[in-house]
Design a protein that fits this description.
The protein contains three helices and no strands. By secondary structure, it is mainly α.
């Protein structure tokens, strides 16, 4: 079980690294989206990458507190898992803001195409 948790933590951190340094999807929307909203989207995605990058080791540390070789401290266990839940909540909020920006962009594009199609 700990091997699976370790692999999952590594995958989470790797995803964060990718979002932080290699993901260019938000930058490709610069021609379609207004500049201010595009910068906000890029910042949100990088912040999500940082959260994922921190979430991986925190997740790993949460599972390491369960090992019999370590001295089990309930306060540490609870603090680690509350921080995991907090980081996941921040990640969900960042994703929802990104979805909201995408929804607004799609709504504007539909309004433009409807206005352009009538002319």
């Amino acid at each position: 079980m700990f091997a699976l948790a370790t692999i999952l933590a590594l995958l989470i951190a790797t995803a964060g690294w990718h979002y932080l340094f290699y993901s260019r999807a938000a930058e490709r929307l610069s021609g379609v989206e207004e500049q201010r909203l595009n910068r906000l989207r890029i910042t949100l995605r990088r912040a999500g990458g940082i959260v994922l990058l921190v979430l991986g080791p925190t997740f790993f540390a949460g599972f390491r507190t369960l090992l019999p070789e370590t001295s089990f401290d309930p306060a540490t266990f609870v603090a680690l898992w509350l921080s995991v839940l907090g980081l996941m909540a921040v990640l969900v909020i960042l994703a929802l803001v990104d979805v909201r920006l995408t929804w607004k962009l799609r709504k504007r594009q539909l309004a433009r195409s409807a206005a352009g199609g009538d002319a």
